[in-house]
Amino acid sequence: MRRTTYLLGGLALALATADLGSVRPLAQSRSGAQAPAFQVDVLWPKPLRDHWILGSVTGVAVDAKDHIWLVHRGADSLSARQEMGLATNPPGSEFCCRPAPFVLEFDQAGNVVSHWGGPGDGYEWPRSPGGMAIDPAGNVWIAAAGVSETPAGRGRGRGGATPATPPAPPRPQDAHVLKFSRDGKFLLQIGKAGKNEASDTTLNRPLGLAVDAAANELYVADTGNRRIIVFDARSGGHKRQWSAHGAKPDDPATGFRTVSCVKLSTDGLVYVCDRQNNRIQVFKKDGTFVKEGFVSKTTLGDGAVWDVAFSRDPKQQFLYVADGQDQKVFVLRRDTLDVVSSFGGGGRIPGYFFGVGSVAVDSKGNVYTGETYEGKRLQRFVFKGISAMRGGSR
Amino acid sequence: MNRRHQLITVALVALAGGLGIAAHLLERAAAAQTTVQAPRFEVDPLWPKPLPNNWVMGRVIGLGIDADDHVWIVHRQNTLLPTENALEHKPPTGSCCAAAPPVLEFDPAGNLLRHWGGPGEGYEWPLSNHGIFVDHKGIVWIGGNDSKDAHILKFTRDGKFLKQFGRFGQSKGSNDTANFGAVAKIFVDAKTNEAYVADGYQNKRVAVIDGDSGEFKRYWGAYGAKPDDTSLGTYDPNAPPAKQFRTPVHCAELSNDGLVYVCDRPNDRVQVFTKEGKFVKEIFVATKTLGDGSTWDIAFSKDPQQKYIYLADGKNEKVYVIQRDTMEILTSFGDGGRQPGQFYAVHSIATDSKGNIYTTETYEGRRLQKFVYKGIHPVTKKDQGTVWPSR
Q1: Min Cα separation B133/chain A (Å)
Q2: If DSSP codes are grouped into helix, strand and coil, which group holds residue B7?
Q3: Do A96 and B336 count as a contact with CB atoms less than 8 A apart?
Q4: CB contact, 8 Å: B385 with chain A?
Q5: Which residue in A82, A90, A302 is closest to B83 by CB distance?
Q6: Contact in structure between A130 and A206 (CB atoms under 8 Å)
């Protein structure tokens, strides 16, 4: 009798979950075009162990094994008084919570299968991480994006307990990228904290990066220096650089405003987020400008184009654009850069966002998002095939 | 032959029956000895429905269920960050979002119904609204916890102003019988029409007033003593229990059998009184908890005896299930985090007529969540963690 009740309960829930697309629409806009459809997976990833909590998530990536990785800001973005009582001295709480390790690797089922990160010998762990990338060999690349002078959305602890590690004097501003093996062994640092001029060997608060394995090259969105810069991925040696429209990077009038991502398509194009210009610019690998597309042109503030990812069909027919200002993910046709759909909205319930700043796609076409600011989540949106978006555009 | 066969059959049936009864009795005896029973819950990750109009909630610091099982919350519009209220900027900095009205009513399916609140004619909307209660007449009560909020407001369910008790900025402390001191929560006794006021963030008392006139009838401090506003300093888990409430006095809830349960939040305890304010008993919860404390809000189970108490702990991010007669903690659920069933500063708790639990979160949590009642089951874990439905 009791078992029957459980089974029925489970069945009812399974139905509710299966019905997500209609019960919990993702505020998906309808343009009449063919576009991928998604449903939020409300029970992914699994709850973290040991009362770990995430700080602002700044980078999300999927590796060749279809494992999902994130990097987050940890204690730097959490409130000592309100939420990490197990990590203060003395402890402010008995049962919860403490920051999760900076880097977490999830399997497809949503279990954490590895975790690492933090300061170590031979490299400078970021004051705040930015984007992350996994190369085909499984190496993990992390941008050191640094800390804004007036950080938005940071935890605002007031009085009470202090962090277990008393804050050290401010470290030099981040100006580098890091390369680790997938188990967290340090391999390479390019750039050096505090040395942020626009030279061939230095960076300034870079937000994004991508690896071209065939050419063995690393592309960096060098945000503070308003340029894309390319390095040899093994030696860290300088290769080339450019700014908006392929211009020289040292022209502030024509440069990027906030270059926040760089991604490489399988057909050899370089997609660059110019966040506060609300645009994507497309280049050849040598920096030759190809075209640009705008997303939510009226968006002010932090801008509309934070990060992009490609759909997983062979032609990479669609682009997914994370817009942490409008709290949604736009779906664009890659060939025309036209917006064909969007999902999300503002809020803390599943499928909604606060500061969605990272996006990645697995081999099945599922989309993963990371939220910074107070969002502090990793979410999964299950790919439900390509279908016509009914009705007109809104 | 035939008859002998019948006899054997009868004997076998009797034997089997006897064995069955014996086994049943043994099972019952074993169960009684070894298992603790408690209500079990699972989060409903799809409740409530998304808000319309690109609305988002700020800190959700009040929760009440009305007679129709509608869920009422009050939240603070002015706690949105500039990075999330783009529609409130001039010009708007994006297509999302704006603060929802302070008072929101949801139906059992999670649809938003009525929404209202904010400053208006004839009353002083609190600087920092806090706590919401829908009484037996369908009247909505709201408090406020800014240091200058010294009053309580009453509205119809449509948001029409009815009455204000106390005046903004006029508090004269814990022995003032005309004003309050930053009220956390209100509970109205349907039998007597008396309002029990958790008073509060400035005052250190429970105040009882007439629900219609607002006239003060009685008030008391910790252990039923006269409240004293002398500062208690910082909570020290190794010191003897404080003789006064330590602000905020965060809830004052009346049980069906006439006991008043008071959340003495930073003191990590719940004190129990008679309706007249005579001290009955107290329990201590997670007493090493510093700062905001462990005892934020309570709700009673919906059986007539109210056999269980559900206690929200916004510092340890969980809900304790407590047996009311013994005040023993049987189990707990919840954990820190932003996924369904997890909490960031779980602040308010209430139950509907079906026994489901609702919670709200303040600080960065800013959610209303529903936990579905799954019946009484043996306790297998003292700390259940995140209670998800199975896939």
Answers
A1: 24
A2: helix
A3: yes
A4: yes
A5: A302
A6: yes
**Burial (0-12, 13-18, 19+ Cβ within 10 Å), A356:** buried
User: With contacts defined as CB-CB under 8 Å, which chain B residues touch A351?
Assistant: 50
Token digits of residue B208: 């009882």
pLDDT digits (tens, 9 = 90+) for A298-343: 999 999 999 999 999 999 999 999 999 999 999 999 999 999 999 9
Task: Please write the tens of the pLDDT for every residue from B181-197.
Answer: 999 999 999 999 999 99
Q: Which residue has the tokens 């007679």?
A: B67
Residues of A in contact with B342 (CB under 8 A): 47
Complex ipTM value:
0.89
